[in-house]
Amino acid sequence: MANLNTTHSEHEEHTTTGLNNRKMLMWAFLGSDCMFFAALIATYVIYSGQIVGGGPVPEDVFSIPVTSVSTFVLLMSSMSMVLAYSALVRGQIKNFQIWILSTAFLGMTFIGFQVFEFRDFVLHGLTPKTNLFGSTFFVLTGFHGAHVTLGIIWLLSLYFFSLRGGVTPERHLDVDLAALYWHFVDVVWIVIFTVVYLLGVFPGI
Amino acid sequence: MVSIPFPVVRPLKPVGIWGWLTTIDHKKIGVLYGTTAFILFLTGGVEALLIRLQLAIPNNTLVAPEVYNQLFTMHGTTMIFLAIMPLGAAFFNFVIPLQIGARDVAFPRLNAFSFWTFLAGAIILKMSWVLGGAPNAGWFGYAPITGKIFNLGHGIDFWIVGLQVLGVASLAAAFNFIVTIVNMRAPGMTLMRMPIFTWMTLITSILLVLAFPVITVALIELMFDRTFGTVFFVTSGGGDPLLWQHLFWVFGHPEVYILILPAMGIISEIIPTFSRKPIFGYNVVVLSGVIIGFLGWMVWSHHMFTVGLGPIANSIFAITTMLIAIPTGVKIFNWIATLWKGSIDLKSPMLYSIGFIVLFVIGGLSGTMHSSAASDAQQQDTYFIVAHIHYVLFGGSLFAIFAGIHYWFPKVTGRLMNELSGRISFLLLFVGMNITFFPMHFLGLDGMPRRTYTYSSEMGWDLWNLVATLGVFFIIAAVLLFLHNVTRSWRKGEKADSDPWDGRTLEWSIPSPVPEYNFVEIPIVKSRDDFWEKKRSGDTSEIELNLREPTGDIHLPQPSYWPAFASLGMLIGGFGLVYLLDSMLGLLAAVVGGMIIMISIYAWSFEPVNDPDVSGHH
Amino acid sequence: MGCTPDHPQSTFNVAGPVAESQLTLFYWILAAAVFVFVIVTAILFWAVFRYRRKVDDKDPEQIHGNTKLEIAWTILPAIILVFVAIPTVITIFDNANSPCTYEEGCLEVTVEAAQWFWNFTYKDPSNPDLEVMTSNEMRIPVDEVVNIKLTSRDVLHSFWIPNIAGKLDIVPNHVNTMWIQSDIEGEFYAQCAEFCGIAHALMSFRVYADSREEFNEWMKLQATEASIPAEPLALEGKKLFEGEKQCYACHKVMGTKARSNVGPDLTHVASRTQLAAGILDNTQDNLRKWLEDPESIKPGNKMARQATVYTDETKKLNDPEISALVAYLQTLK
Description:
The complex is a heterotrimer. By secondary structure, chain A is mainly alpha-helical. Chain A is built from six helices and no strands.
């Protein structure tokens, strides 16, 4: 729903607050999405440590170094997103294309890590069916992964659209909205990484 | 010019069914919402009638136990999600742009998408009746009886998917109205000059945006349990039934205010108009609405006083719940103060509004009784609760909706509803409502649990059950008379002028029925109740301007196929999700539905709101 | 008024301190509510009639508000609510904390709720060597605190004896505790109060508050093994029960080969006043009806839907077999 109406802001309408309508829509959507992840994370936290019937627990499967790398990759993607946007407003379409493509590529790398990780966990005997840890972990990180995937599709759409000259500095809002979404998904991952991974392995901190 | 990758001919000025399918006019969408939701309200009424007939006498065998469980589940789900919420949305759609002086909502196509998706969700839910059985676990679907172990059929799956689709519709509408109200106001209409109904719509939309994702997550978890074998609510795997209850009511209690705040908004428009006085204590009425919306997040566990949360939690939630009585009471006092020293015209919208106050006070007070957790231990899950929810949702929300229909009908149709019919149907509804639901207080205190399909005569519940069932026939008579009034008045009613009630807000400054462009000239707002002030000041030049034909061409957004097409994807994909595991067909439908949604979103994204080619050269 | 205290589940006919405190609180809040309702509607109706529009009405004065009034009607309800909140919190804590726990020498009953019947397991400090487990009928000593532990076998249920105490839900994976006490000897109705499936309406039981002596007698009887019937018909029934008809696969009769707890305990079924979880008087006729067609009496019950004598036409119980089973079950006093 996030990328509706991405191409028709030649003449920005006048609004009461001066804020663009689409941008406000995006903020409202992200507020809603916050609650979505809050509920998923709450489920994870409430159930953490409540394993019935055996199966792996966080310490058995998490590899903090590997996930730290994928977290770093995602953080870098946010940076390249910033660079893409700033290239666009400066009118450097070529640079914009490079940066937006690298953002999408870093996002795909992150998803690659996630696929690798999921596969590894399944090999360790942890599936969504195994226990509450499996159910809560896979559903939470899976939905985050789905958000990243949607973001990648959006970024690639912008890239291909820019090849036909559809992305211009005057229409920077189209990219701005995607960037907003991308940063949000990134921030959510920081929370997940902290709550699920770090606290899962080092419960003391 | 950017090329459009989906070269579908854009609907230009479609008529007939295509006109309705592709419309993005907020007024038409409001009418679609209203009529669809009212039809669904009638289906929920039939479900209620069957429940009451079954309970009319002890040991009745009219309805089989399993069917009875489906009936009360569908009745609750229908009335809340398919009737009261979308009837509220009908008013948002029709009234809000007019009240704030806008030509349409911020995202007209998203608005159309909301309606068609709501329809898709309604179809998915209601089709369960003919596709192997409706959901049967109550409208709040408490775990673990919704799990696969206890509930093999597809009823619960229809419920899950139906609510998810309805959630998408509600969220899309809520985003739209937040942006519309914040950003599309006429010049000079500051926040504190907005009509109360607009304010309540804004608060309701914010509550929706924040509350719906929580139930979305709960439903996703339940769906994964049932479809993919996760163990969120599977007790043998350690799943906690109370997690479902917490998630459900963290959504569910704000939802209660989502149902009642628009009603309060409608009442706050009608009472000043028919008293010829401004709303008393405007700031306080707005503020109390905000406080109710805020406190609504801190009371969810009062639905769980008997689940064993312990005395500390119960005491805290008892007190926060009692606190809500204060802003609610303040609203009621302000309505009465608005009436005080007014010039009160008891036309049917006003009768319904006064009925609303009386019934809502009863419902509010019985609510305060439940807030006392210790005493609630005797009332929880009995007919006393059933009485309470019907006083606030039937006596409250629904009476306000009826009031609103009578009030805005001339603005929608250009004709007045028959006043005598309106008064008689009000009287029948008020009497019938009380005959049906007041005895339920007695039944509950006499120990009758809710959701029981039968009872034996030694329990002493015969009399009041019979009385309650008899009351239903008054309600039926009232609704039939109302329907007759609406359909007749729509075609042959007395013509209404632009301002039949001596109104105060902007929607009464433009012709009835409202022209497609709403305002010839966007008004410049100088005060609260701007239209009233302008009327009374004698300076009518601006008003007259808006009653004239426009001189130039008013540029409006064009109709679009894509919103309805995306919703079709939701419908197909929804059925696919229900039958995901049953056959390849289920999976196929899910994939096809998803693809239709993707295609629609792309096409929609590349379709300009204002197509210069369309409006310029034809 | 519409509520009649002599109805068996009336919350006005209180028999013990918990229900009594809840009723007192109810009356207190009801009084406040009626007071508020009368005042608000009186003012409302007065305003509506006093200020009805007359034909030649001019616009009324455009009053926009009054700060003092707003403050007044914010504070007044708050004061009333304080008087509701204080007794509420006190009662919540009183009813949550047992005045006499098992450790302090009072009876403890563990309730297990299942679709759609009840098991009761007794731990009585006064009868420390008696092990008592029974189904669908609860007996308690009068004037004594009884501690209740609530467990569920399947879905949500709720434990509710309206005359004695408000309800507490029975939640799988949780053990909820409460205390009850009856100050009156006699029979009390109890019913599951949380929707639990198709036969939710038929999940009841009876509670009997007896004198301590009678209660001890009952405990002793319940702790004994089932007697072996002397009468040939009943013996025939016992053979069917433990053999061909496989009743033993789901029921328990202590002292016999029937040891399963899938269904209710039947060791002393004939000593109970009710059948099928409080929905039929325990008579020969009713027992026969129950065995003939349990589905028609309690839809959805496991016996009707899973026992081969009901699912398999060829193994159906015939009349003489039912008579024999009835005769046997009636000896289980």
